[in-house]
Write a structure and sequence with these properties.
By secondary structure, the chain is α/β, with parallel strands linked by helices. The chain has helices spanning 55-72, 93-107, 125-133, 146-152, 161-169, 192-205, 229-241, and strands at 6-12, 16-21, 78-81, 112-117, 136-140, 176-180, 209-213, 246-249. The protein has an 8-stranded mixed beta sheet. Helix 3 links the parallel strand 4 (112-117) and strand 5 (136-140). Helix 1 (55-72) runs parallel beside helix 2 (93-107). The longest helix has 18 residues, at 55-72. The two termini are 22 Å apart.
């Protein structure tokens, strides 16, 4: 199912009552990752529509939705940029963030503005500065090396985990690190190669919060296995004992 420009609110495992914003094609998918677990499916299957909404469209749609929620007494915990792919690929992303913050302040000042991103474009100064303005920049690293990322994320050519880590260091820890834990025939988040490398990155970045989650919906790749909450708690216990704040969702 493809999402409209503004959708919900829906209940999010991680963010509560979440009003979604999809800055990507309404009938297609646009992403520079092709994750084996993506609930939106493979990139090749989501190219029936390539049109991206602009800032004016977003402003009109979001204000109408926020006003309706306000009048109907519908609570909003987070205005969340997610949608069908990578939201920062929209060329109007920085302007749209400013519009969203202004409308949030007008209608739901207690709500957070959240962005779920694969962190690939934070090397662009305008994207970095826009993400610095939001309450919850939720930025992804699923694998600690290029070879392992190729197995689970299947990123665009030229992706390097070290580049992403260096760019994330610029946040000074003021971001949320998001990581998917899963098992497949070729990738296992609990293996020492993956887990120890990932924990080393966590220690280097020291994010203010970590969101660890596992499979919850249908995936495009077959044969994927999820972890239990108890298994994930055991996997991240060294970091918990070191004082890291970790949200674990099954």
């Amino acid at each position: 199912m493809r999402e409209e420009l503004v959708f919900g609110p829906i209940h999010s495992r991680r963010l509560g009552s979440s009003l979604g914003i999809n800055l990507l094609p309404r009938k297609g998918k646009l992403c520079n990752f092709d994750c084996i677990y993506c609930e939106c499916g493979w990139n090749k299957d989501g190219r029936t529509d390539e049109r991206l909404p602009d800032a004016g469209e977003l402003s009109e749609a979001l204000e109408a939705k926020l006003l309706a929620c306000k009048e109907e007494g519908v609570g909003i915990d987070s205005i969340t940029f997610s949608g069908d792919g990578e939201p920062t690929l929209n060329p109007f992303f920085p302007e749209i963030i400013d519009i969203t913050i202004a409308l949030r302040d007008k209608y739901f000042p207690e709500a957070k503005v959240s962005v779920l991103s694969n962190a690939t474009r934070i090397g662009k100064e305008e994207v970095f500065q826009a993400l610095r303005k939001v309450d919850n920049p939720v930025l992804k690293i699923d694998a600690p090396s290029d070879d392992l990322a190729a197995l689970v994320n299947q990123p665009y050519a030229g992706y390097h985990v070290e580049d992403v880590v260096r760019n994330l260091e610029r946040f000074g820890g003021n971001f949320v690190l998001q990581t998917m834990f899963l098992k497949s025939a070729s990738f296992d988040s609990s293996s020492p190669e993956v887990l120890e490398g990932w924990m080393d990155i966590v220690r280097r970045l020291r994010p203010r919060e970590i969101m660890v989650y596992t499979l919850d919906r249908e995936t495009p790749a077959e044969g994927l296995e999820k972890f239990t909450v108890q298994e994930m708690e055991s996997m991240v216990r060294p970091l918990l004992e070191e004082g890291f704040r970790i949200q674990i969702r099954g």
